[in-house]
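Task 17 of the worksheet. Students: predict the tertiary structure of the chain below and write it out as structure tokens. Keep your answer in the requested format; marks are given for formatting as well as content.
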Amino acid sequence: MTPAPVIIAVDGRSGAGKTTLAVELAARLRQHHKVSLFHLEDIYPGWNGLMPGIERYVATVLKPLSEGLAAEWTSWDWEKHYDGGLNVTLPAEIVIVEGVGAAADAARSMLDAVVWVESPGDDRRRRALTRDGSTYEPYWDSWAAQEDDWLEADSVVSAADVHVRNLADGSAPDDVLQALMYLPPLAAILSPELSARRGLQLRSERLDATPDAALLFEALYGRSANAAWLDSSNASVVAGRSQAAARSRFSILADDGGAYGQSVLHRSGATQVTAGTATVTTSGPFFRWLDSVWGRRAVRAPRGYDGQFTLGWLGFLGYELKRETGGNDVQSDTPDAALLFAGRAVVLDHRERTVWLLALDAPDADAWLREARAAVVGASGGVDAGGGAASAAVPASAVPASAVPASAAPEFASRDSATDYKRKIADSQHQISEGNTYEVCLTTTLEAPAGDLDPWQSYLALRRRNPAPFASYLRFGELVVASTSPERFLRILSDGGMRAEPIKGTRGRAADPHEDDALRHDLETSLKDRAENIMIVDLLRNDLSHFAIPGSVTVSRLCVIESYATVHQMVSTVDAHLRPGAPRAEAVAAAFPAGSMTGAPKISTMDILDQLESGPRGIYSGAIGYFSLNAATDLAVVIRTLVVNPDGADGPTLSLGVGGAITADSVADDEYEEIRTKAFGVLSTLGAEFPG
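Model answer:
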């Protein structure tokens, strides 16, 4: 008896292309493994024999193979319509079973992976009849009816590990193989394939150009279903080599196209990865999944390139991932995380006024490099469509009241009325007086029907009105995130350098310079705001220390005032160095969510917030950024962020989260005015007003 094989079932309705997919998948796996292939069509007892055929297959083929034994089975003679000869299928390292019912309920306990193949009904019928000709045509309807009856009683579709849309263009086998690598039961057997996937070569081109970033993004990714633009939209107003200029030096534009493109959505313990036409779902914590795909140096940066992003994952982590870091399990109507894998991207170096084209070596790399080069040239001679990086930051009151047509202005409603929010401030202070917390970052959510609002044009208006170092535009299908965040959550360099830059303390801007200076001075000298900031700095020192080299945690800036288009902010900087060999995904998790969005101490305060706040925060208060193939990451806190959610309870909705830190010294009216100030930049750009 040989060791039990890994068994992969390829199932789906007739004509979906299962046979071709299974044969091609077996051919790819045979490069590193011994593979057996079994077709269920050889065992069905006639045109009315779907269910008896499944029973025969499970008993005489699957059961012995799953035990490492040879399977002896009786074939069906389709010409004589009677049992044929005796056949033997030998076990191998990998066994692929293919056909309608290959993953039926009675079979699933003996399978290591289930692939469900989907294709439109008309295509399936045409393919099946093309393959089998007139012999199948008289039986198509009766066989389809048997499939309907079986699927009505069997949950095979929902139980499948991998779903593939078979476009019959040759892409399905590679997509399925890539998806199978994410399944833990197959990780050991597919280690040769995983090693080949990790042996990546990075190609690059440097162009001396200063393209309009908005035009470039629209040219390259305007039609991409999933795309990301990490946009240092304030680059033109922070010059030289200051810390502010360093934060705003690079912008990244990418989608999930090309040979290596993938996307991932995580919801409540289930991670769904899409690779081309195939989608695989696994269960388990998100940060454990992240550790399996990120944190090892897989590529080297190009010579002369100073950026930390060398392709990889880009997107957002939602606040509700706190369930994995000590918080309660709260459900959100937006994904808990959404990332795309960019196997090619454009990086703008604003300081050097250059463009870097990055692409993993693949058959389609040359064509993409030509396309990207042409797009850069085209966007370098145009007028700035979004204002963005060419615009100077100015006080909000000096900007026109609305940057989008008045007819498009949404009407927001608040989750909490002014009275409710102020009552929750008092409840927060009661928790502080009881010794349960020192500081509570109390938030609320503004929501409005999305109507006909154009997310892209709205983002261009936001970046023009409120340029920021960590602005971003993310699109995952109809879900859109438009952020003008000024706050870094966490950066980990490829060499292990760590940095967090919490913001606590906010004042609005004024058009009059003297009044504006007075507001800045008021923030700079505020003992309350300074206390808030120092408490979060202390919390972050603790968060970073979990995986830092002992003694490396330092505070290089404390309570420094930075000015943005609509607000003054108090910012500090906490630095550390990651221990060699420390798991980087766990280091991110140890600091998540950002302490500036929870309060201190973090875990007990998150529990208090779950009691006070009337619903999930969703994407707000989470993080946006990248996880690079050189093991670097740079993440911003999700604030000053508009979310367009297509799955709202009453249809597509807009949401904007706002909040502030509550301490024992907080004055309710002042705290409420602060959340109005924080919302002003986004609301006024949309022509909207703070509700209530």
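Marker's comment: Confidence is low (pLDDT under 50) at residues 382-402. The chain has 20 helices and 31 strands.
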